[in-house]
Automatic annotation (TrEMBL):
It comes from the Bacteria. GO terms for molecular function: starch binding. CDD domains: CBM_SusE-F_like. The keyword Signal applies. Residues 1-28 form the signal peptide. GO terms for cellular component: outer membrane. The lineage of its organism: Bacteria, Pseudomonadati, Bacteroidota, Bacteroidia, Marinilabiliales. This is Fibronectin type-III domain-containing protein. The keyword Signal applies. Residues 231-327 form the Fibronectin type-III domain. Keywords: Signal.
Length: 613
């Protein structure tokens, strides 16, 4: 009978252990002793843990029960122990061990002591959690108006790797990492840290900090006060630039901790001017000020900075460079020809502000020049000196004289080179026909090969075979009208150097005279490149000009892949994308299958065809 009761009690205890273990974390999977079991550890912190024990059979009764623990295996009651002091009829008892070391592995056993001696449950292990790092904060040194040297030391990692340390600082006590911080490394040991961008004459509070998996620890707080600093100033962008004046200003964003005694603008011909250069003092409004710069030289580069002075010295804002306008004139060419001559441009008849124009240059501020196309059989027009009709406006006074009281100027259809002299009060209008001349051109140096004018593109265009020699652009079979390129870089100068042709080929040629005094050209020979072509992505397959159809063409074997149209064996000018509307730098064009193909390219309409033969 007694044996059956013990078996029933033992079975009940096994059920209780299973139910308890299912409801707790970190359950120790242990085998029960006949009289006592250590079942689990709960609520492990950095300095405590709760150990659960079971009394299976008390026999004649236990006089003491609890948990013994150690940092080595096999703890006994002769070492550290915590006695269970509560009086409960339950077989389960909970004992909280306190005063433990952080980040330390412990061994624990439930025990019970009776007349027969002490029995122990199974041994369980647990490791206490780490704590935040331990630090000291260094005294602050090297204090200036906007910086100081601080630091500290991570004297203990708290049982876990320190992933970041530095100092945190602010103008309120007990700063945290939510305030301004430095990040000076990881691990332990001493460190130095520079505090920068501080405000002058201001008290700051500083603490060293270090972070590990347990959180962030802080050192003791120290404080210091910065010296008076130079004022902080910003310079306003320069605006309202004319030939002889401009508008700028600034703002004092911080007085450096002392009264401002002077502020304004410094300016001069050299970068980063100071108060030893030109100074304009200002009246401050809402911490900002505006200054007019006057009596400046035309077309001259100046430098300007805002400044402010206090007892510590003078602080400066950003150094801003600007250039006064050149003494350049712009005259407009309104007339009844504009809409017909410039289709799709948005320009309109008899509207000075919506008309072509002529301009003077920096070197010659009263001599104006430009090219204007007039498409009508008879074109009427005038010179307007402003982008409106406020005048003066000039007509033809006879013999090329500008006359404010004269009628409209009449010109037949043509592409005109217009010149006007504002000082002499004269003008010329010469119809021009442009072409290419030179040893590299079809007619050599004997005569120019004609280009054609495109009103839609406002440029002269043509395709011709050029040899590896030299060319220039010339009009009207006269050297009075010719352009070369001193740098061979796409820009043109009147009477400039011959333009070299590097490779003999068919070239698409563009001469653009539409912007006064900024004339340009391009010489483009075209080819195919891509993994579908014989040269792959390394070498172009050249195309030739088909004059009958007005396209570049090439017949060649292609493999399935992609290709693009490229000019001059370089990537500066290339086209891809939709072959019915090619775009600069567009996507690669696909070739679906191997075969022999004829490919065409229109460099003006930017269309192509891909035909399998």
């Amino acid at each position: 009978m007694k044996r059956n009761k013990i078996l029933i009690l033992f079975a009940s205890l096994i059920v209780a252990v299973a139910l308890f273990s299912a409801c707790t974390e970190d359950t120790a999977d242990v085998r029960l002793e006949p009289t006592l079991s250590t079942a689990n550890t709960l609520n492990v912190t950095s300095d405590s843990a709760t150990v659960v024990g079971f009394v299976v059979a008390e026999g004649d009764g236990f006089t003491e029960r609890g948990v013994c623990y150690s940092t080595t295996e096999g703890p006994t009651v002769d070492g550290n122990k915590t006695i269970y002091s509560e009086n409960t009829p339950d077989a389960t008892f909970y004992v909280t061990l306190s005063g433990l070391d952080y980040a330390t592995k412990y061994y624990a056993r439930a025990y019970a002591t009776g007349e027969a001696g002490t029995v122990y449950g199974e041994e369980v292990t647990f490791t206490t959690l780490p704590v935040v790092p331990f630090l000291t904060t260094a005294e602050i040194s090297e204090i200036t108006g906007n910086s100081a040297m601080g630091g500290g030391a991570v004297t203990g990692n708290g049982g876990a790797d320190v992933t970041a340390y530095g100092i945190c600082f602010g103008t309120s006590e007990n700063p945290t990492t939510a305030d301004a911080t430095t990040n000076d490394g990881e691990g332990t040991g001493a460190f130095e840290s520079m505090l920068s961008e501080l405000q002058g004459n201001t008290t700051y509070y500083v603490r060293a900090y270090a972070t590990n998996s347990a959180g962030t620890g802080y050192g003791p707080q120290v404080s210091f006060t910065t010296l008076v600093d130079l004022p902080k100033v910003t310079t306003t962008a320069v605006s309202g630039i004319t030939k002889t004046s401009a508008v700028t200003g600034g703002a004092v964003t911080n007085n450096g901790g002392a009264d401002i005694t002077q502020y304004g603008i410094v300016w001069g011909l050299n970068s980063e001017p100071t108060i030893t250069d030109n100074v304009i003092e200002a009246t401050m409004e809402m911490d900002s000020f505006v200054v007019d710069l006057t009596e400046l030289e035309k077309y001259t580069t100046y430098y300007v900075r805002a400044f402010a002075t206090n007892s510590a010295g003078t602080g400066y804002g950003e150094n801003i460079e600007f250039t006064t306008l050149a003494d350049i004139l712009t005259w407009y060419i309104p007339g009844d020809y504009v809409e017909a001559s410039y289709p799709g441009s948005g320009l309109s008849n008899w509207s000075p502000e919506n008309s072509p124009y002529v301009m003077s240059t920096i070197d010659n501020g009263t001599s104006l020049e430009g090219y204007v196309y007039m498409a009508n059989a008879d074109n009427q027009w005038k010179f307007a000196t402003q982008p409106n009709w406020d005048g003066p406006n000039y007509g033809d006074g006879g013999d090329g004289v500008l006359d404010a009281n004269a009628d409209n100027i009449h010109s037949p259809a043509g592409y005109y080179k217009l010149n006007a002299d504002a000082t002499a009060g004269t003008f010329t209008a010469v119809a021009t026909e442009w072409g290419v001349i030179g040893s590299g051109s079809p007619n050599g140096w004997d005569d120019e090969t004609a280009l054609a004018y495109s009103p839609e593109d406002t440029e002269w265009q043509g395709v011709m075979h050029l040899t590896a020699e030299e060319i220039k652009f010339r009009a009207n079979h006269s050297w009075d009208y010719n352009y070369g390129s001193d740098a061979a870089d796409g820009t043109l100068q009147a009477g400039g150097q011959n333009i070299p042709v590097d490779v003999e080929s068919d070239y698409a040629i563009v001469l653009d005279l539409s912007t006064p005094n900024e004339y340009t050209y391009s010489l483009n020979r075209w080819g195919l490149i891509g993994d579908a072509t014989p040269g792959g992505w390394d070498n172009d397959t050249n195309m030739t000009w088909d004059a009958d159809n007005g396209v570049f063409t090439a017949t060649l074997d292609l493999v399935a892949g992609t290709f693009k149209f490229r000019a001059n064996d370089g990537w500066d000018v290339n086209y891809g994308g939709d072959i019915n509307a090619l775009s600069a730098g567009g996507d690669n064009i696909a070739v679906a299958e191997d075969g022999n193909y004829t490919i065409t390219f229109d460099p003006w309409g930017l269309t192509a065809t891909v035909t399998k033969n």
